[in-house]
Specification:
Distance between the termini: 32 Å
Oligomer: single chain
Largest sheet: none
Order of helices and strands: HHHHHHHHH
Helix content: 55-70%
CATH topology: Heme Oxygenase, Chain A
Structural class: mainly alpha
Number of domains: 1
CATH superfamily: Heme oxygenase-like
Strand content: under 5%
Number of helices: 9
Bound molecules: protoporphyrin IX containing FE
Number of strands: 0
CATH class: Mainly Alpha
Radius of gyration: 17 Å
CATH architecture: Up-down Bundle
């Protein structure tokens, strides 16, 4: 992935990936979109440790309905598709961590902004098909950078963690190993060409929706938070 200078280090290379690795294709096809998202001012404030409690809670709060829909969609699909079942681990469901973080911050879950509602509709519409794996890829993959962001947010908000930071850093020291396993598990399954295309398309759509959501969060930012 050609990452921006803001990246703390280059993404781990998926060394044992097969030649037709879907995991590698996903990374390549979303590299530009990743750079665009990580350079968004809203993410920049989090990464640089310049965020307010409001900025952080706004990000968590908008991600909550998306994660809830992904958790539910992936679990439902795992129940009927052995390939997804083989990928799904008990540490994957994520919405409860975000709920706990918001509680720890003393922030109620905010109403969904318009871009969040559109994003949630997309996830719900994909929930019955393997395409939702494209969304899951982006969200689960974001915990790689989330580890670094958690440290910056911890400093900015005087939050020692792990309480309040589990949404950003769900796996702690196991991050690298669990992400490697997610990609290896994805590549161990057989996907039809149509399924691969649908997964890749959903991943690029997900980045677009996240970018729009970041824009809505930015527009809704109170003047007093700047
Ligand atoms: C909306 C925001 C973001 C999303 C959706 C996102 C998504 C992702 C995804 C899907 C991956 C996995 C790439 C792969 O291995 O296939 C990833 C990796 C990574 N991201 Fe982000 N990211 C976001 C923001 C950031 C930011 C702000 C940073 C800067 C700290 C960052 C740093 C990283 C790093 C360092 C990796 C690679 C980690 C590794 O492989 O060891 N990300 N991100």
């Amino acid at each position: 992935m050609s990452h921006a200078p803001a990246m703390p280090h280059a993404p781990a290379v998926h060394t044992s990936a097969p030649a037709d690795s879907l995991a590698l294709t996903l990374r390549e096809r979303t590299a530009e979109a990743h750079t665009r998202a990580e350079r968004h001012p809203q993410q920049g404030r989090l990464v640089k440790g310049l965020c307010t409690r409001h900025d952080y809670a706004a990000w968590l709060g908008q991600m909550l309905p998306i994660w809830a829909a992904v958790d539910e969609g992936v679990s439902a699909l795992a129940a009927k598709d052995a390939r997804v079942r083989a990928m799904h681990r008990d540490y994957h469901p994520h919405a409860d961590r975000i709920r706990a973080d918001l509680r720890h911050l003393g922030q109620p879950a905010p109403a969904a902004l318009p871009a969040t509602a559109r994003f949630e509709s997309l996830v719900l519409s994909l929930a019955a098909s393997p395409a939702i794996i494209g969304v899951w890829y982006v969200l689960e993959g974001s915990s790689n950078g989330g580890r670094y962001i958690a440290r910056a947010v911890s400093r900015a908000l005087n939050l020692p963690g792990p309480e309040g930071l589990r949404g950003l850093d769900p796996h702690g020291e196991a991050q690298h190993e669990r992400w490697g396993r997610w990609k290896a598990d994805l590549d161990a399954q057989r996907w039809t060409p149509a399924e691969r295309d649908a997964i890749i398309h959903a991943a690029t759509q997900t980045f677009d929706h996240i970018y729009d959501m970041l824009g809505d969060i930015e527009s809704a930012r109170p003047v007093s938070a700047s």
